[in-house]
Amino acid sequence: MKPPAFGYAAPRSVEGALSLLADLGHDGKVLAGGQSLIPLLSMRLTAPHTLVDINRIPGLDNLSIAQDGSVVVGALVRHAELLAHEAAFAALPLLRRATSNVAHPAIRNRGTTCGSVVHADPSGEMTAILAITGGTVQIAAHGVAMRSVGAADFFLGPLESCLQPGELAVSVTFGAPAARSGSAFLELARRRGDYAMCGVAVTVTLDEDDLIGEARAAYLSVGPVPEVHDLTAAVAGQPASSADWLAAGELATTLVEPEGDLHASADYRRRLVAVLTERALPQAAQDARARAEVAA
Amino acid sequence: MAGEEQFTVSLSVNGTTTPITVPARRLLSDALRHDLELTGTHVGCEHGVCGACTVLLDGAPVRSCLMFAIQAEGHDVTTVEGLAGADGQLHPVQEAFRDCHGLQCGFCTPGFLTTIAAALDDVAPGDSISDDEAREIVGGNLCRCTGYQNIVKAVGRAQMIRSQRAGLSADEDTIGDSE
């Protein structure tokens, strides 16, 4: 359980990191919070030639709210910082609702939100949040313009993103919530802080009469990549206080294709999709009404 | 491994800075135990699950098995050895674990002590940690002996000891008789 030998560099600027990563190509691997990478190293599941430690680069720990209300999280912002950030919570409450489910406090003190997204684990909370908020990843590489990739194109498969050798994800941007919308996050794990057997992030948007205009959900631990499903058909036009959430949950089970493993069978995960969806949607509807009242 | 590049790292641990020479892959947990011979930090799972190796990095709990020693340079590390006062007085959480029988074999205890000590520091004066919050605080630490009940009790007891001590030190003249 010790990492294999590797080369190590700790550049002091983004440019320095990019030029190192460009030289290293496939041999380079970025080290940020390390809460997923270091276990992989210790279990000898990966053996990069050189680690490029970005922790000494100033400026990558910025967390800001853009003009349009989206939340930009720099590559060195730790989960714990995002969790405690009041402006980020006010702009996008779903961030705190999800981040509080990421592992344990000691892991959140070190692990980064951006790193979690790049790790592309379909059982990760922040991958689902990036997907449902229509978020993007900002990717830099030596000598080329920064590119921004939407969640749908970023996640290619379990632990696989579109990030190329030589590239560095410098920030992730979580999209602003729609007007008159609310959100909720629920997950079920065997033990607190463990990987969820199933989790769901939902948003509900209401029209001017508090009738449901849109209901969407993104799931974790039920597919190879975070998928966003539209559940509006089951509840469209219904009053937020008495919508047929059960039908929305049942609709969701027809849209997901979970696989079974040691922790939960495929059928059980599908059942969890129904139950968690049915529980989360009314919370999001209530949140939407509360936020609409505050905004009014 | 012959020829592996070595780095000189200044590790600041419990207020003392010591230079060590290690390869980049030296985990902070191993540097503490092997290079600094501070064996209070225990190594259980070595992949971040059990919490036994938890130390404080600039006051915040982190897994020392999920960090390289070279990354700790420039930061203040506190291990379980650094919790008690210079005069040997136990930290409130250490005293609470003794009072509440919060340990049996003791292997996981250093991780619990550092984690809870940091949580106590985060509590504003006058506030208190509920049992549910205590469970969240220790949720990332595994104990195979106690069943956790006494550990949760110890969190409450540690708070009590801490506020008692704060009261006593503010009112030092009156403590002679009661002791």
Give the class of chain B from helix and strand content and strand pairing: alpha+beta
Write the element-wise H/E pattern of chain B from the N-terminal end onward: EEHEEEHHHHH
CATH architecture of the largest domain in chain B: Orthogonal Bundle
Low-confidence stretches of chain A: none
Which CATH top level class of the largest domain in chain A fits? Alpha Beta
User: Which chains share the greatest interface?
Assistant: A-B, 30 and 33 residues
Cα radius of gyration of chain B in angstroms: 18 Å
CATH superfamily of the largest domain in chain B: [2Fe-2S]-binding domain
CATH architecture of the largest domain in chain A: 2-Layer Sandwich
Average pLDDT of chain A, to the nearest integer?
Answer: 96
Query: Roughly what is the average pLDDT of chain B, rounded to an integer?
Result: 93
Tell me the distance between the termini of chain B. 57 Å
Fraction of helical residues of chain B = 25-40%
Quickly count the helices of chain A: 12
Biggest sheet of chain A: strands side by side, in what order? 4-5-10-6-7
List keywords for this structure.
heterodimer; A: 296 residues; alpha+beta; Uridine Diphospho-n-acetylenolpyruvylglucosamine Reductase, domain 2; Uridine Diphospho-n-acetylenolpyruvylglucosamine Reductase, domain 3; Enolase-like, domain 1; 3 domains; five-stranded antiparallel β-sheet; four-stranded antiparallel β-sheet; B: 179 residues; Ubiquitin-like (UB roll); DNA polymerase, domain 1; 2 domains; five-stranded mixed β-sheet; 5 strands; globular; disordered C terminus
